[in-house]
Amino acid sequence: MIELRPVVFVIGILLTILAVAMVIPAMVDIAVGHPDWQVFLVAAFVTLFVGVSMVLTTRTSLRRFTVRQAFLMTNLAWIVIAVFGALPFQFSELELNPVDAFFESMSGVTTTGSTIIVGLDFAAPGILLWRAILQWLGGIGIIVMAVAILPMLQIGGMQMFRVEAFDADKVLPRAAQIAGGIAIIYVFLTGMAVLVLWSLGMSGFDAVAHAMTAIATGGFSTYDASVGHFDNAGIDWAISVIMVLGSVPFVLYLRVVRGDLQTVFADTQVRWFLSIVFISVGLVALWLYYTDLMALPDALRYSTFNVISVMTGSGFATADFGRWGSFVVTIMFLLMFIGGCAGSTTCGIKIFRLQVLYATAEAQIHRLMQPSGVFFPYYNRKPIPDAVATSVMSFFFLFATCFALLAVALGLTGLDFVTAVSGAATAISNVGPGLGEIIGPAGNFATLPDSSKLLLCLGMLLGRLELFTVLILLAPAFWRG
Q: Where are the alpha helices (H) located in 149-232, listed in sequence order?
């Protein structure tokens, strides 16, 4: 049997943090005189009571935290936080049913950005801020998980970053210190983003909400029209930069702070990421210009923002790119799967896995052409271990399988082909909007049946926790011993 005390202890700490976070939107609602402050305070009290009770009844040492406990804790943490995070949505003036409230909360904490709320322009400020806080906490949570937990669990090639982050890198001596350093940088970047957006014309409230969801590459906005509501080129360019900053490995920022300014652009993962962004933006901009849909400056502005938003999984929108033609829709659909860099707030397949797959295929081609030769795949000028290559290829297979099964399951709930396929893609890649008239950039997930929403929640969790972390719990051997 798995010793559950350490798992419950950690989840109790996380719930305590979540309860403290609920007080912030309560104070905002009090300031504007909105009655939902009572909902937030009650939800905070319930969450705090449960969290503190879990901590006090399971006080234990975490020094012997086993791999199986880490798997279980990671899954339960995201699910439990989503459940308690749903309380304000369900009991506020929105009066969402339990499934809708859970969907909105899961979308927030996994930084997916899909929403079922209609009428954001008139929603209470506390609820709008709570959505942003959930994504902001989910963003920092996934970074810490990527540098401290996933490498230990050897998920989908992430073991490669255990060496880079702790042994070869030697940025800081312990995982806790690395997590602390990353948290400071995360808060600093958020603060700078707030100042920039506020200076460009956003209100203080909107600047805070959009800065939090942009650096977390989450995509929750305070308006139904998303960032398109502002119709401000400066804001579009600024948020584009913020989303890119959230897509870079945060461990590299620690190196920059220590004076290694060249480290970001020397990393091949970052170079691949930026190259894909530039190429995709160029193709979409040229398409918009040569099909007479937009003048060149507008084409560059709208293509840059929406390409970055989709590729990083942010989910913001300034236009309905579904109306830009089949060429653009095809590019956007493919970009949904890519994601950003490992150790960032983004999800999707991740750039480094594409690099490993490419290097492995290249080495195999060389072996076919020169059977007597010895060729090794490389990543960042280091040989790729066979275990990493196997993990990455297994991840690709599992990702494709889960995507296909999720799309089929959504189809069985009555969704049309475009909605089912793009819904599966946007959920498992944690992007936000899908394609088509229903869940496209100008659409909403509110009209989907509850069964579809629950399936999408499962897809969000699978994508956010890198598939293996969730699916391993289904193996009977995991629970034995």
A: 150-153, 160-162, 175-199, 204-215
